[in-house]
């Protein structure tokens, strides 16, 4: 999470949405950088509203806007699946090595998934208890040009990003049957992505 005091903007870092690359480019401009540990870097909106926003109000500002990126739900899970397939995790309960993408997504759809498919939720990250999101600027990961334009205009700068924390690249395909189950079991994930600017 990054806080830009002058610009009155808080960047909420949704995991696996290119936030590390954006953070690398924008951190020098930030007033506050929540980089480590991951629980602080990836502060969800409800925790921001409960803990961070009141702290910022002590500094005399109340009208901060929020910014976040969401990824298409299938692509988001694909990134997690590929990330957890890397060599460094082999033998770890989180490893997806030897697991098919269909099996990964099917496990994710369970109420209590196995550790390898326990990756959280974009919808819960950006929503309150009532299921509504209150992110001021919500962009689709797939709209990289618009994300770049947003920051370049807001900060009057040229945004130069380097690829960081990239998942291993290999093709994964989700069967239509499992995708239909995913959509049925996790409709909030798809509804959130539909709300985002494309």
What does it look like?
Strand 1 and strand 2 form a beta hairpin. The chain is α/β, with parallel strands linked by helices and 198 residues long. The protein has helices at residues 19-26, 38-41, 45-57, 73-83, 101-108, 122-125, 144-155, 176-185, 187-195, and strands spanning 2-4, 9-11, 32-33, 65-70, 137-140. The longest helix is centred in the N-terminal third of the chain and has 13 residues, at 45-57.
Write a concise synopsis of the structure shown.
This protein has helices spanning 19-26, 38-41, 45-57, 73-83, 101-108, 122-125, 144-155, 176-185, 187-195; strands at residues 2-4, 9-11, 32-33, 65-70, 137-140. Helix content is 40%, strand content 9%. The mean pLDDT is 92.
Top keywords for this entry?
198 residues, 5-stranded mixed β-sheet, alpha/beta
Tally the helices.
9
Q: Round the mean pLDDT to the nearest integer and report it.
A: 92
Query: Which residues form runs of ≥5 with pLDDT under 50?
Result: none
Which quaternary structure do these chains form? single chain
Draw up the topology in text.
Layout: E1 2-4, E2 9-11, H1 19-26, E3 32-33, H2 38-41, H3 45-57, E4 65-70, H4 73-83, H5 101-108, H6 122-125, E5 137-140, H7 144-155, H8 176-185, H9 187-195
Parallel strand pairs: 2-4, 4-5
Antiparallel strand pairs: 1-2, 1-3
Helix pairs in contact: 5-8
């Amino acid at each position: 999470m990054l806080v830009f005091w002058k610009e009155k903007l808080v960047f909420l870092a949704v995991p696996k949405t290119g936030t590390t690359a954006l953070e690398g480019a924008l951190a020098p401009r930030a007033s506050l950088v929540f980089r480590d540990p991951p629980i602080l870097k990836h502060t969800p909106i409800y925790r921001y509203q409960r803990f961070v926003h009141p702290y910022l109000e002590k500094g005399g500002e109340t009208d901060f806007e929020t910014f976040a990126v969401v990824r298409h739900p299938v692509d988001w899970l694909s990134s997690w699946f590929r990330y957890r397939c890397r060599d460094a995790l082999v033998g770890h309960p989180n490893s997806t090595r030897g697991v098919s993408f269909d099996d990964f997504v099917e496990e994710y759809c369970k109420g209590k998934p196995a550790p390898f498919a326990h990756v959280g939720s974009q919808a819960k990250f950006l929503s309150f208890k009532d299921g509504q999101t209150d992110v001021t600027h919500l962009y689709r990961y797939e709209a990289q040009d618009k994300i770049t334009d947003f920051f370049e205009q807001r900060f009057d700068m040229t945004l130069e990003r380097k690829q960081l924390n990239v998942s291993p690249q290999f093709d994964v395909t989700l069967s239509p049957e499992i995708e239909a189950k995913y959509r049925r079991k996790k409709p909030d994930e798809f509804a959130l992505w539909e709300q985002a600017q494309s």
